[in-house]
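[Discussion] Sanity-checking designs against the backbone

I'm trying to build intuition for which residues belong where. Below is a structure token string of 463 positions. I'd appreciate it if someone posts a full sequence so I can compare it with mine line by line.
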């Protein structure tokens, strides 16, 4: 293989030099040997990150409106977070939590307790990835209620491990032959998701009541309330297209849960940690979760996720039900403590709210430009989790053209992404829906936000 890749001097020379070789050769190696075409959005190797910018090995510098899919929320290599992690690296890298607590774990609990959306959320368990934490939340709900069924949302995304995939119903991200993965999973429509068959004037309350009606039907039929452990919901649909849930929908779910003794799992993996201008998206509705899942922005790039529940529920877990060798790693926890301190100390929530207004204003102005108007169907989101949904040139609401496959909303979105990257803005679509999403760092400056919005506008006009 190395010969075929014609790396200068062949394998022997490569070995004598160690593995480092040119960026082009390494990319070629990636294309051949890294599964599933990862790294395909931008050609090249991302070499450095600093604040709102990333730099590629070839020197190309891009303004980053992806934040590694909402992870590096305080910008790349935030000095206080990197410093905290570096110090922890020199102190204690790993302590298996079943053997002993480590200090950053407990300090993180201390930081998180006061920012929980409800004081009843008082029992924490940390993991590495969002998917693992979703699995743990499902497990916790089943143990706490003694019931098996889980209700999820059409359009929802919760990860790619088996249990998380079972409750993921956004457009298929998986191949045939993998499903079904978990019995006892049912879904209801998330209001607004795929509503485009409906007249544009359909009020939100109609969509909400339609979903809640489906929930009632489901509970009356396939999944009797006495069998249902939990309803899992993203308060702002992420990979399904950045659709915020109407507060009355979330309240409706809460009411159904209260009526039937079902637990409400709120997945804040993407929407949590100040992303929407409050610490958690669910706070915008005032609805109380029974279990909350957090990850992504929690540690600004270090792998860390968490499940927060009520002590009365987590006390029912037998030792050994939850666990993982690397769960709650000390370096990640130390980084997360620094993240929490920065969010508080550097007035990040206020910055998100200010920059969010600017972003919405500029995208709405773009949408009302007569040249652009027919192509932008929707601008939506909350805080700095914002998306633009494109429409076919045949008019707002027109659907994918199965004959030409051209100029569908999906192809428009990916062409806009490509044009943005060419012009110096790193931006992406959601994995399961044809929207272009904006997830800039939460501490982005007015100037950088303006610059990114301008590049986006130029790219849209060009495409
Ligand atoms: N839940 C939500 C809402 C997500 O957006 C994601 C990832 O994008 C996950 C869960 C899965 O997290 P991870 O990719 O860390 O496993």
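Best answer:
Here's mine. Compare freely.
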């Amino acid at each position: 293989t190395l010969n075929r890749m014609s790396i200068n001097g062949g394998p022997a020379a490569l070995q004598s030099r160690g593995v480092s070789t040119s960026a082009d050769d390494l990319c070629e190696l990636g294309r051949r040997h890294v599964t599933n075409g990862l790294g395909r959005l931008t050609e090249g190797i991302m070499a450095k990150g600093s604040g709102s910018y990333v730099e590629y090995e070839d020197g190309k510098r891009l303004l980053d409106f992806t934040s590694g899919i909402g992870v590096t929320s305080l910008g790349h290599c935030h000095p206080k977070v990197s410093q905290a992690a570096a110090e922890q690296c020199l102190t204690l890298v790993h302590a298996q939590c079943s053997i002993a607590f480590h200090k950053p774990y407990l300090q993180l609990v201390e930081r998180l307790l006061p920012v929980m959306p409800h004081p009843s959320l008082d029992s924490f368990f940390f993991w590495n990835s969002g998917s693992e934490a979703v699995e743990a939340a499902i497990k916790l709900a089943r143990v706490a209620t003694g019931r098996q069924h889980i209700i999820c949302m059409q359009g929802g995304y919760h990860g790619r491990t088996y249990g998380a995939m079972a409750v993921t119903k956004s457009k298929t991200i998986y191949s045939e032959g993998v499903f079904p993965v978990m019995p006892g999973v049912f879904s209801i429509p998330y209001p607004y998701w795929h509503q485009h068959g409906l007249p544009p004037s359909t009020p939100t309350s109609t969509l909400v009541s339609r979903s809640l009606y489906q929930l009632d039907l489901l509970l009356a039929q396939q999944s009797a309330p006495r069998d249902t452990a939990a309803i899992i919901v993203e308060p702002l649909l992420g990979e399904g297209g950045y659709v915020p849930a109407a507060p009355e929908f979330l309240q409706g779910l809460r009411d159904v849960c209260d009526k039937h003794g079902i637990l409400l799992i709120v997945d804040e993996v993407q929407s949590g940690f100040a992303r929407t201008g409050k610490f958690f998206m669910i706070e915008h509705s005032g609805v109380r979760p029974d279990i909350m899942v957090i990850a992504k922005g929690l540690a600004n790039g270090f792998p860390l996720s968490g499940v927060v529940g009520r002590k009365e529920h987590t006390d029912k877990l037998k030792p050994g039900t939850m666990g993982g060798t690397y769960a709650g790693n000390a370096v990640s926890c130390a980084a997360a403590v620094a993240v929490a301190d920065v969010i508080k100390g550097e007035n990040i929530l206020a910055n998100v709210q200010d920059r969010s207004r600017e972003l919405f204003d500029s995208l709405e102005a773009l949408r009302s430009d007569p040249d652009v108007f027919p192509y932008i169907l929707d601008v939506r989101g909350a805080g700095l989790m914002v998306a633009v949904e494109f429409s076919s040139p045949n008019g707002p609401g027109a659907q994918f053209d199965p004959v030409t496959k051209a100029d569908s909303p999906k192809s428009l979105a990916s062409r806009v992404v490509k044009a943005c990257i060419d012009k110096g803005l790193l931006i992406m679509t959601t994995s399961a829906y044809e929207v272009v999403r904006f997830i800039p760092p939460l501490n982005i400056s007015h100037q950088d936000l303006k610059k990114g919005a301008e590049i986006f506008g130029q790219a849209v006009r060009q495409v």
